[in-house]
Amino acid sequence: MSNNITSRRNWLKQGALFAGGLMGAPALMSELKARPAFGMTPYRGKYNLQEYHMAPPDFSKIKVRLLANENPYGPSPKAIKAIAESASKGNRYVYSSSRKMEEMLAEKEGVKPENILLGPGSTDLLEKTAIVRCMNGGNVISAEPAYMSLVNTSRSVGATWKNIPLKADYAHDLDAMADAIDSDTKLVYICNPNNPTGTITPSNEIMAFGRKAADKAPVFIDEAYIELAMDPEVKTAVGLVNEGKDVIIARTFSKLHGMAGLRIGYMVAQPERIKSIKDMVRTEMGISVTSMEGAMASLADTEFQEKTQTLNQECREYTMGELKSMGFEPYPSYTSFIMFPVDMPTDKLMYAMVDKGIGIRTYNINDQPYCRVSMGTMDEMKQFTTALAQVFDKATVQAGGK
Ligand SMILES: Cc1ncc(COP(=O)(O)O)c(C=O)c1O
């Protein structure tokens, strides 16, 4: 007992010393304060983009989750079976499954197994690449608006962000991004199709950009939604890796495969680039054997993948049509979500929709409010359009009016 008290006192003393140490180190304190807000906190960039990372204050009210670009149909039944069957392998580390999975993915992507790096979701790979590349500062270049995972982590460890606005056609401004590269550039990030806009940058332009830019800085291309584009013009840039370019392609099982909560993704890159990351951090150690076996079963389940693609496209077309008929002007979407400007403050819109049981995501970009809605099932999209029509006091066409 007295030992416990003594150790608690020592612990308290150490805590006080630690706090005192920090107080006595104003440089460290100001460095901590200078780091950008992260996670749930909205951030404001040069272009005044304010993002609500996690919209709903009260998740229990949300009956229809259209806020995180999740696949409403997954996981594949074959993945669920493989997950259940592999639970008994839980006493073993994942090594033997991961070699098998690297081979499967290498064959699918037309690369070698040493070009594949697995991780517990692509977020892990985006953030670890950012940490490894930016731990000594430098800058990262991306579009704005963009998916902020890599950029935020880069800024958190001390890099600066060169934000290049999307062009009027919502494609990346690759010329401006090329001009922005300097000797301190640690990563160039391209998201194609882009989140949160849902729009694309022509694949041939990305290939031409990657061929030149990757000689100056690694080019990270996030293709989280590429399988949902359903447009023959939208192609992966993985060929750049085969051309020997320092390009990193990120893919995820969270979208097409409906495994967001199971956490699995991968990167395709040069073996040296993968080694530079693996020398510092481990990524595949974060994947459970059940998720890995489930992902391999899902890869083989082309029927499930095609079902997701077809249903996502049907919902996208339905929702686009409804939004347009209500007078909104949605951005073209090549993903599992649609973004459109609204004439209502983001907070008001979000709370009004949550009150109707619908979770959505909102953004302010250059002080213009936007709504981003993920594709759910057709029934969920009808609930969304009906609720939206009520909130904006508009008539809907297909959902049956107010
Ligand atoms: C563009 C983009 N990249 C990466 C991710 C992260 O996906 P994961 O679930 O694989 O971490 C998302 C998730 O929404 C995304 O939209």
Bound molecules: pyridoxal-5'-phosphate
Q: Gap between N and C termini, in Å?
A: 68 Å
Task: Determine the strand fraction and express it as a percent band.
Answer: 5-15%
Quantity of strands, as a count? 13
- The DSSP helix count reads 14
Biggest sheet overview: 7 strands, mixed
Structure description:
There is one protein chain. This protein has 14 helices and 13 strands. It is α/β, with parallel strands linked by helices and 402 residues long. It has 2 domains: 50-72 and 303-392, Aspartate Aminotransferase, domain 1, CATH 3.90.1150.10; 77-300, 3-Layer(aba) Sandwich (Aspartate Aminotransferase, domain 2). A 7-stranded mixed β-sheet has the order 3-9-8-7-6-4-5, with helices on both faces. A 4-stranded antiparallel β-sheet has the order 1-12-13-10, covered by helices on one side. Helix 6 (149-156) links the parallel strand 4 and strand 5 (160-165). Helix 12 runs parallel beside helix 14. The longest helix has 24 residues, at 302-325. The chain is globular. Pyridoxal-5'-phosphate binds next to helix 5.
